[in-house]
Amino acid sequence: MVDVASRRNFLRGRFGIRPKPLRPPWALAEHAFQQACSRCGACCKVCPTGIVVSGDGGYPEIDFVRGECTFCAACVSVCPSAALQRGEEGRAWSLRAALGEGCLATRAVECRVCADLCLNGAILFLPQRGGIARPIVDETRCTGCGACLAPCPTRAINVCRST
Ligand code: SF4
Ligand code: SF4
User: Fold this and answer.
1) pLDDT (tens digit, 9 = 90+) per residue, 40-75?
2) Of the candidates 58, 93, 128, which is a domain's last residue?
3) Which of the residues 14, 129, 146, 160 has the least number of beta carbons within 10 Å of its own beta carbon?
């Protein structure tokens, strides 16, 4: 399930409410992360897609407006303080794409750029009786890579934590 509070704020257009920052993949849980991270910025410098930026307090945050995560793990490799580390489960994070109300399909406009760009086939367009197909996110396939966020012409997609 997606973080309901973040999603509700997003759907209601409460963009002024700053959500909790998204940390790089394989980050420790937030409290442990803040304890461990030295704010050295190495992960920001090494990320090949430039999505790791220095955020509040100098801690690294993910900015999907800049691009997507390829899960190359370069950020983990350079982290000198093990604030980023691959656990036994190997799961990078609990992020998933969430579709907002601005999708052009709600205005009967065909777009589908998000589905075209999703390498995992996680965005499906379901036919609607008497209208054009509407997108849904298959959370079992979505990796939260963020590839669909920036290209969406109406910025109708957000990436939220799953619970
Ligand atoms: S895994 Fe690679 S692409 Fe993803 S945030 Fe880390 S360095 Fe960037
Ligand atoms: S490389 Fe590790 S210690 Fe340095 S800013 Fe990134 S997460 Fe923090």
Assistant:
1) 999 999 999 999 999 999 999 999 999 999 999 999
2) 93
3) 129
Distances, alpha carbon 45 to alpha carbons 28, 54, 150, in Å: 20, 10, 21
- In this structure, the number of other CB atoms found within 10 A of the CB of residue 3 comes to 19
Whether residue 109 sits in one domain with residue 87 = no
The beta strands (E) that lie in the chain are given as 52-54, 60-62, 95-99, 123-128, 131-137, 157-161
Q: Classify residue 134: in a domain, yes or no.
A: yes
CA of 144 to the centre of ligand 1 (A): 12
Q: How confident is the model over 84-109, as pLDDT tens digits?
A: 999 777 789 999 999 988 999 989 89
